[in-house]
Amino acid sequence: MSRVLVVGAGLTGSLCACLLRRKMQSKVQITVWEKCHGAGGRMCTSSSPDDPNCTADLGAHFYAELSSHGILRPLLAPVEGMAMTEEGTRNFVAPKGASSIVKHYLRESGAEVHFCRQVTHVQRKGPGWEVCVEGGQAESFDAVVLTVPVPQILQLRGDVPSLIEGSLRQKLEAVSYSSRYALGLFYKAGTQINVPWAMKYFEGDSCIRFISVDDRKRDMGSPSSGPSLVVHTCVTFGLNHLEMAEGEVKTLIMAELQKILPCLPEPTSVEVRRWRYSQVVNVVDGSLGQITLHLSPLLVCGGDGFTNSNFDGCIESALKVVEILKSSL
Ligand SMILES: Cc1cc2nc3c(=O)[nH]c(=O)nc-3n(C[C@H](O)[C@H](O)[C@H](O)COP(=O)(O)OP(=O)(O)OC[C@H]3O[C@@H](n4cnc5c(N)ncnc54)[C@H](O)[C@@H]3O)c2cc1C
Asked: Rounded distance, CA 230 to CA 58, Å?
């Protein structure tokens, strides 16, 4: 049985683990290491500190052209100002939050999942790879899949820098991401958010790009839990305030929100999330969903940086990564 490590418990990592299990059954032992304390990556769902059922999607919020296992359902709530994509495109929302999709695939994979493990080094040891995490712990694997954003691949040490040289380094360094902030505002049960929409895009505002009443968006309002609001900044604001202290950024966004929605009630808590790597602007040139850094033992990279920053892009990348794994293990 081959030991495969998937680094990153975002959508691509969870799909890789799930597809690998489906295609290789009991021939593989799959492990997932994630640096954060939960699954989701850029599809994270946060909870109010006062009520775990009051949740907000601080990353990706809805998905085109995908329906599966009752995890997604068509978006029916009213949206104002959304740019129309291709004719016939249908959008879906995840009733239990964006991270429920990632958790579903992780469950299906049967992988051993460990949180709070930030991979720092990947180096050759015997016939496989030795992978080290922050704090020094190390384990050996027969194959390693990196699904972390491209700039974070470039920060890995061990043998990784010597495997990324010349034109490949140039290609990876040319990948760029937009940056933005997301705020989650949580309210106590019974609070009314008096706006006529579930989601609204704001054109031309120097700070706020999008607001959603998250429970209304998912049609999941419950009398025992309060509503939640998600606010995304525009990318120009994200870029211009990227290095500012989170507390100060929060004050700026809350002031702008007050101008846009002056009657908004006082939240019980507010969470701020800085997305340094939000959506990919320039993908890896000519990568076709993955880049193999080493064939035997296998070290392969995937993720939205190798395709497109959306659901379908992550699926495409995961399929390509699993194809390589299948042929090399
Ligand atoms: C604000 C926002 C809004 C978006 N809106 C949409 C949308 O509406 N529709 C849509 O389709 N897409 C949207 N996207 C894009 C979508 O979220 C991404 O394309 C997708 O989630 C990328 O998944 P991934 O698994 O490739 O990467 P990630 O989700 O980034 O997963 C990588 C994981 O690796 C972990 N990691 C990083 N470094 C290490 C390390 N050294 N060791 C261990 N773990 C590590 C990270 O913590 C993360 O969990 C949005 C993204 C953002 C941020």
From this structure: 7
CA distance 102 to 170: 31
Closest ligand 1 atom to residue 39 Cα is 49
9, 115 contact by CB (below 8 A) = yes
- Give the residue among 180, 182, 100 at the shortest CA–CA distance from 92: 100
Contact 123, 159 (CB under 8 A): yes
- Ligand 1 binding pocket, CB closer than 6 Å: 7-13, 33-36, 41-43, 59-63, 118-119, 147-149, 152, 180, 182, 232, 275, 278-279, 303-304, 309-311, 314
The tokens for 185 are 């505002």
Q: Cα angle at 190 between 218 and 266, to 5 degrees?
A: 95
Domain 43-97+177-275, CATH 3.90.660.10 — does that match? yes
Q: Does residue 327 have a pLDDT over 70?
A: yes
- Cβ neighbours of 130 (radius 10 Å): 17
Encode pLDDT of 6-55 as tens digits.
Answer: 999 999 999 999 999 999 888 999 999 999 999 999 999 999 999 998 99
Tell me the domain boundaries of the chain. 2-41+100-176+283-328, 43-97+177-275
Specify whether the CB–CB gap between 6 and 13 falls below 8 A. Answer: yes
pTM metric for this prediction: 0.93
- For residue 323 the two structure tokens come to 């194809």
3-state SS assignment for residue 52: strand
- Please determine, looking at this structure, whether the domain spanning 2-41+100-176+283-328 carries the CATH number 3.50.50.60: yes
Atom of ligand 1 nearest to the CA of 40: 49
Kindly state the helix (H) or strand (E) to which residue 132 belongs, with its residue range.
Answer: strand 128-133
Structure tokens at 13: 């990592």
- Beta strands 180-186 and 73-74, pairing class: unpaired
